[in-house]
């Protein structure tokens, strides 16, 4: 006969547990590394956004100085113009150093620091710069930066031409250079907005990419761990089935008189034994018949006390309670057996005993103990239920998650998911019924009434007739992942210092406001608020005081705006307010007056009382622009007009500004 094909031996439970632990450790390390990389990249992007604000402010101050020089030429104003461009030139120096074939990191670091970037941010900025070839948005942002530097060079050239012209013809009219200056200023403003948009889009792209990678990794970990756990559970079920079969065979053997049976004497004699006994211990009948076998000599020394207790009971009551012991096999290893004996009728030193080989049963018991250990060692919460979903067992991790003790859970009906949506509940139940499996994010209602976010994996365990016998539910705590997702969303849309909408969210809100205005046929307005005398505050008191003032500015702006208005910080000391649903221009006037009043009040920071003030440019849709870019540019121009005026702090944009244009 041909040998039967041998079934593949499943890996031991210990190995499967190691696989699960290895998967968890590997993915944890990868997720940690991705989180660290993400934090570094996001830090670099934030630094560039802050640097862009400083760059834009310096450029705007330089343009204002050049306008001033055209109207009132003097050497001090020209020197102020050159000083205002130092940040722009130092940033250019850093960029050129990094774009060399062999990047000059020392020069780049000195350039970034001289451009007033925080030293702790410089390394991330350089690393992100060198990654630009692999990140499309960053590559485009650097191209815009390069183009802006060319226009800065044109601005410097224009300033030198104006100065040389003035020196050659002191009485000549320098306003002939204003159109060229206006063109350069408009182009630089356009590039500043484009640069910020690219950084914002890059930030969102990186956030989405890291989020997707993290989700895929977590899903892979849960899928792999669930697969291994399911194999373990199936193996446990197979072990239980084998144990039941072993018990059935024992009863059959006993009834058929084919279990191990021996006739013994109290001093160890073996007068007779069946083939089953001989087979269990590896001896032949010839060895038995020759008197070579002695049951006391076949007993390990550490088990002799068990025999003595059994013999004492037999001599007292005529029989002993069956017990477990070991015999020594002919090959030298121990054979665990289940043994019971009794005196033969009318005899005081001769008896009969039955013996069952417990080798397989002992192995099963060891496996079950190991499975129970695995269940308790798991960091995920695990429930095992019967086909009616009555909880049979639960591990400590689940008790810790839910806040309930095991005695309050076992015997109760298990709730695998927490959903108030009937359609979603039906979908889950259909999946369990059809596929015997469901896995999704859900919530676990704890004993304190708190909804704990978890990743639930529920598997049905089937019997031989394909009927559902058990359910195994595995719950992984994902509260940290959910918190990370919320933090990433806030980082992408809100300013970290003031909590206001950042430039990215502002652009989206402005486009939405314009769309609503088109539908409702009502106007909307954009107020561009720039703080006056804020740079000296940073120089004199330090950035920590400056940051506290910016936070207080945000708080005061919130107090004077409506709930329907959008308040945003673009960077540095620039804020914008989007006002919707305008029925008359006086609403904007009123808001502007309240903003001016609030920001003109002293700021008490520590022991310092600091007064700064503000300049506000106002643009109204659709009179001054039909797109977000047009409105922003108009409000920016109006803000500089307000800053240049002596009699007002806010200014309404004029499409055709005149030399004597009136403010609101």
From TrEMBL:
Domain PAS: 246-318, 367-433
Keyword Zinc-finger: no
Pfam families according to UniProt: GGDEF (PF00990), PAS_9 (PF13426)
Positions of the GGDEF domain: 522-655
SUPFAM superfamilies: Nucleotide cyclase, PYP-like sensor domain (PAS domain)
Transmembrane residue ranges: 20-37, 210-229
Source organism, top-level taxon: Bacteria
Cofactor(s) required for function per UniProt: Mg(2+)
Gene3D superfamilies recorded: 3.30.70.270, PAS domain
PROSITE patterns, per database record: GGDEF, PAC, PAS
Domain PAC: 438-490
GO molecular function, a single term: catalytic activity
Key words of the record: Membrane, Transmembrane, Transmembrane helix
NCBIfam families associated with the record: GGDEF, sensory_box
UniProt name for this protein: Diguanylate cyclase
């Amino acid at each position: 006969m041909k040998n039967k094909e041998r079934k593949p031996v499943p890996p031991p439970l210990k190995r499967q547990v190691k696989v699960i632990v290895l998967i968890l450790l590997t993915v944890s390390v990868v997720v940690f590394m991705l989180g660290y990389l993400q934090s570094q990249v996001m830090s670099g992007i934030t630094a560039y956004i802050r640097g862009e604000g400083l760059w834009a402010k310096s450029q705007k101050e330089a343009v204002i100085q050049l306008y001033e020089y055209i109207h009132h030429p003097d050497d001090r104003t020209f020197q102020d113009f050159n000083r205002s461009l130092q940040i722009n030139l130092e940033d250019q120096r850093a960029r050129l150093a990094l774009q060399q074939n062999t990047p000059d990191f020392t020069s780049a670091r000195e350039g970034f620091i001289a451009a007033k970037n925080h030293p702790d941010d410089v390394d991330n900025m350089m690393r992100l710069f060198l990654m630009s070839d692999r990140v499309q948005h960053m590559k485009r942002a650097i191209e815009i930066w390069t183009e802006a530097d060319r226009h800065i060079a044109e601005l410097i050239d224009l300033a030198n031409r104006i100065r040389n012209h003035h020196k050659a013809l002191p009485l000549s009219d320098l306003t002939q250079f204003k159109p060229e200056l206006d063109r350069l200023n408009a182009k630089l403003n356009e590039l500043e907005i484009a640069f910020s948009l690219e950084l914002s889009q890059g930030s969102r792209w990186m956030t989405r990419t890291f989020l997707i990678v993290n989700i895929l990794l977590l899903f892979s970990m849960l899928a792999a761990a669930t697969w291994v756990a399911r194999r373990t559970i199936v193996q446990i079920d197979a072990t239980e089935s084998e144990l039941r079969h072993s018990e059935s065979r024992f009863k059959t053997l006993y009834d058929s008189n084919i279990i191990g049976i021996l006739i013994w004497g109290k001093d160890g004699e073996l007068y007779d034994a069946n083939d089953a006994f001989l087979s269990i211990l590896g001896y032949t009948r010839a060895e038995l018949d020759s008197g070579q076998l002695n049951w006391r000599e076949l007993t390990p020394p550490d088990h002799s006390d068990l025999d003595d207790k059994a013999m004492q009971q037999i001599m007292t009551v005529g029989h002993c309670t069956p017990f477990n012991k070991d015999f020594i096999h002919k090959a030298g290893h121990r054979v665990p057996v289940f043994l019971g004996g009794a005196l033969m009728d009318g005899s005081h030193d001769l008896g009969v005993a039955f013996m069952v080989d417990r080798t397989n049963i002992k192995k099963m018991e060891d496996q079950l103990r190991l499975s129970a250990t695995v269940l308790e060692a798991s960091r995920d919460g695990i429930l095992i239920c019967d086909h009616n979903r009555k909880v049979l067992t639960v591990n400590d991790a689940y008790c810790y998650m839910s806040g309930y003790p095991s005695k309050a859970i076992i015997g109760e009906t298990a709730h695998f998911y927490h959903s108030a949506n009937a359609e979603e509940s039906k979908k889950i139940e259909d999946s369990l019924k059809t596929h015997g499996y469901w896995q999704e994010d859900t919530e676990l209602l704890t004993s304190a009434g708190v909804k704990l976010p978890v990743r639930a994996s529920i598997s049905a365990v089937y019997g031989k007739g394909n009927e559902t016998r058990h359910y195994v539910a595995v719950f992984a705590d994902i509260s940290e992942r959910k918190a990370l997702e919320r933090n990433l969303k806030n980082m992408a849309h809100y300013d970290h210092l003031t909590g206001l909408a950042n430039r990215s969210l502002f652009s989206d809100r402005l486009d939405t406001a314009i769309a609503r205005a088109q539908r409702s046929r009502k106007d909307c307005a954009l107020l561009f608020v720039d703080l006056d005398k804020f740079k000296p505050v940073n120089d004199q008191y330090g950035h920590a005081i400056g940051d506290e003032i910016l936070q207080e500015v945000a708080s005061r702006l919130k107090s004077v705006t409506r709930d329907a208005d959008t308040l945003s910080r673009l960077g540095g000391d620039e804020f914008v307010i989007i006002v919707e649903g305008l029925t008359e221009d006086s609403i904007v006037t009123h808001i502007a007056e309240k903003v001016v009043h609030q920001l003109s009040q002293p700021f008490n920071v520590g022991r310092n009382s600091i007064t700064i003030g503000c300049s506000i440019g106002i643009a109204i849709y659709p009179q001054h622009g039909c797109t977000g870019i047009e409105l922003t540019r108009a409000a920016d121009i109006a803000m500089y007009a307000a800053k240049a005026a002596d009699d007002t702090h806010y200014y309404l944009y004029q499409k055709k500004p005149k030399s004597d244009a009136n403010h609101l």
